[in-house]
């Protein structure tokens, strides 16, 4: 499966303009073509578990490695938006 092929020899690679909208469209098209789910609900994550997931995420080394400090409330908000 060639995820970068748009058919008819076309490519789904973003154009040379390098703008943010072009990159966002490219990623969205790639997600659709790959058949990936786009929400936590579609992955059968229970909404009641979101606070637990945010609490666990803030303890991960990656949250401390991030150049911008991230708090549990921010992660919960992110998970709620992804639900």
What is the fold's blueprint, element by element?
Layout lengths: L4 E3 L2 E2 L8 H15 L15 H10 L1 H5 L6 H11 L1
Antiparallel strand pairs: 1-2
Helix pairs in contact: 2-4
Description of the structure:
The structure is a single chain. With 83 residues, this protein is mostly helical. The protein has two domains: 5-34, no CATH class; 41-82, no CATH class. Helices cover 49% and strands 6% of the residues. A two-stranded antiparallel ribbon has the order 1-2. Helix 2 (50-59) crosses helix 4 (72-82). It is extended.
Question: So what's the overall shape?
Answer: extended
Tell me the total number of β-strands: 2
**Order of strands in the sheet with most strands:** 1-2
Q: Percent of residues in beta strands?
A: 5-15%
Q: Alpha-carbon distance between the termini?
A: 28 Å
H and E string: EEHHHH
Contiguous uncertain segments of 5+ residues: none
Question: Structural class given helices, strands, pairing?
Answer: mainly alpha
Quick one: biggest sheet? 2 strands, antiparallel
Helical stretch tally: 4
Task: Give the C-alpha Rg.
Answer: 17 Å
User: Which percent range fits the helix content?
Assistant: 40-55%
Mean pLDDT: 85
Number of domains: 2
What's a concise summary of this model?
This protein has 83 residues and is mainly alpha-helical.
Any key phrases for this structure?
83 residues; mainly alpha; two-stranded antiparallel sheet; 4 helices; 2 strands; 49% helix
